[in-house]
Amino acid sequence: MNQTLHFTEITSPLGTITLTATERGLSGLYFAGQKHWPADSSSWLRDDGTRFDAARAWLSSYFSGEGRAVMPELDPASGTPFQTRVWQALKAIPKGQTATYGQIAGLIASPSASRAVGAAIGRNPISILIPCHRIIGSTGMLTGYAGGEDRKRWLLEHEGAL
């Protein structure tokens, strides 16, 4: 059974962000022009009410540099069991730090799966809150980011990781 997706849009230092939510929690955070935008957004219901208050508060605190707001309930769009393990591992990377694809592969007990980890990270549906921007290449270079490399650089500089 398909569940109803609600959405709202917010303005951020990185442009317009679209937030989506199910009845269980925040299911998506997408930048304008982001790769891997959900296939069918035509059935989403606009909801500018209180459903997104916790996400708005968290993002406001994050962008202001305070970072003290309570994390909203998350309900990532369905992913494979492997993707879910990768997304969980991303949440363990502290603000202001980075990790490599290989380190994430090691954290999920799949040390030879760096490329698969990269693919799963690219499909992360809740950017920033599930911090896929904190992943860099093994040489320390910034690598792809579904929201764009300029946004990734901004986020890492904002967190003091660059």
Which SSEs are present, and which pair or pack?
Elements lengths: L5 E7 L2 E7 L4 E6 L13 E2 L6 H12 L16 H10 L8 E2 H7 L6 H9 L12 E2 L12 H10 L4
Parallel strand pairs: 1-4, 5-6
Antiparallel strand pairs: 1-2, 2-3
Helix pairs in contact: 3-4
Side by side, the strands of the main sheet go 3-2-1-4
Q: Could you tell me the strand content as a percent range? A: 15-25%
Alpha carbon gyration radius: 15 Å
Question: H/E element string?
Answer: EEEEHHEHHEH
Largest beta-sheet characterization: 4 strands, mixed
Structural class: alpha/beta
The best one-word shape is globular
Query: Mean pLDDT score, rounded?
Result: 91
The share of residues in helices is 25-40%
Quote the distance from N terminus to C terminus.
44 Å
- Low-confidence stretches at least 5 residues in length (pLDDT < 50)? none
Number of strands: 6
Number of helices: 5
Question: What can you tell me about this protein's structure?
Answer:
By secondary structure, the protein is α/β, with parallel strands linked by helices. It is built from five helices and six strands, in the order ββββααβααβα. The strands form two sheets. It has a four-stranded mixed sheet with strand order 3-2-1-4, covered by helices on one side. Strands 5-6 form a two-stranded parallel ribbon. A hairpin with a 2-residue loop joins β1 (6-12) and β2. The longest helix has 12 residues, at 53-64. The radius of gyration is 15 Å and the shape is globular. The protein starts with 5 loop residues before the first strand and ends with a helix. The relative contact order is 0.16. The model has no long low-confidence stretch (mean pLDDT 91).
